[in-house]
Design a protein that fits this description.
Blueprint lengths: L12 E5 L4 H17 L2 E8 L15 H22 L3 E8 L2 H11 L4 E5 L13 H9 L4 E4 L12 E5 L4 H12 L8 E9 L3 H4 L7 H23 L4 E9 L2 H12 L3 E5 L13 H9 L4 E4 L5
Length: 305
């Protein structure tokens, strides 16, 4: 493990999944804005899964599958044209199969540096408030994933304020580097908020306040402040305003509250932290933040050996 944050790297290849839903449209807006500003190649991926006849009492036309593909291809071409009109180097990628598998496969084949995906799809089903395709992509992607809720359009100006929660793990450091890599070259004015949230688990407080609790929390806050200042010093550069926050409270709720309070453009975080605990393959803090965030969330999963 290293305490040094990796150097930011601008994504050269961006892969965005689309099923033409409102969430996918919002995700595409972010993807094309990022690609146009950074000179990245943008691949718009649509995966069509053909389930067979829509009913068991009506025979489908003989060209049913071909017609579905033709319509899907036409809509994908329209999406690519919109992205191109916005200044992105956009290309279509039409695939047959399960959306999350095909999106991950396309990202691997294209050596994607970033995946952009909407958090809900056309089915209208909600899985823990997070669409199943997005959830599975976040769980399994080997590159950073930007998730976007419907209506979360990119800001008119370049990214101005990033919220970077950290527990000082390798995952958190990688997320910080990935977020800074999304800042377009030449952008000078950028504000980042480094946030560390801590709390005593219920096991420490279920039997009433223990004598060591106040001192323990003070020690945690002091150590966290020192580490945040070290991290801020590593990231310092001209035009970058860095502020640090240490807050006692349940980490997902703290992150969400600070994001709303500050009106940030983007949250970036690792999918798992120092605890090593895994909840549905996705760290519980990241899962809850992605579900309810008021802005897009960039997640990074460190490959496990």
């Amino acid at each position: 493990m290293t305490d040094q944050t990796p150097a930011p790297a601008t994504p050269r290849v961006i892969v965005a999944g689309t099923d033409f839903s409102p969430a996918a449209v919002a995700a595409q807006l972010w993807a094309e804005r990022l690609a146009a500003a950074r000179g990245s190649a943008l691949h718009l991926v649509h995966a069509l899964r053909v389930y067979g006849p829509p009913t068991d009492f009506l025979v489908s036309p003989p060209d049913y599958t071909e017609e579905l593909q033709a319509r899907a291809l036409a809509r994908l071409d329209e999406a690519v044209q919109r992205a191109s009109d916005a200044g992105a180097d956009a290309r279509p990628a039409f695939r047959l199969g399960d959306p999350h598998r095909e999106l991950l496969a396309a990202a691997a084949e294209l050596a994607a540096d970033l995946i952009v995906v909407g958090t809900r799809g056309t089915t209208g089903l909600e899985h823990f408030l997070l669409g199943s395709t997005a959830e599975r992509v976040i769980e399994r992607a080997t590159c950073p994933v930007l998730t976007v809720h419907p209506g979360q359009e990119p800001p008119a100006c370049p990214l101005r304020h990033l919220l970077l929660p950290t527990d000082f793990s390798d995952d958190a450091r990688m997320a910080i580097a990935a977020a800074l890599g999304l800042v377009a070259p030449g952008e000078q004015e950028l504000r980042i908020t480094l946030l560390h949230a801590y709390y005593l688990p219920i096991e420490y407080t279920a039997y009433g306040t223990i004598p060591t609790s106040p001192r323990y929390l003070e020690d945690v806050a002091g150590a966290a402040e020192s580490r945040l200042q070290e991290l801020a010093a590593q990231l310092a550069r001209p035009g970058l305003t860095i502020e640090t926050r240490i807050t006692e409270g349940y980490p997902p709720e703290v992150v969400l509250a600070v994001a709303r309070e500050l009106g940030v453009d983007l949250i970036a975080m690792g999918t798992r932290g120092r605890t090593g605990l895994e909840h549905l393959l996705l760290g519980s803090t990241a899962e809850r933040v992605v579900q309810r965030a008021p802005c897009p969330v960039l997640t990074v999963r460190r490959p496990r050996g």
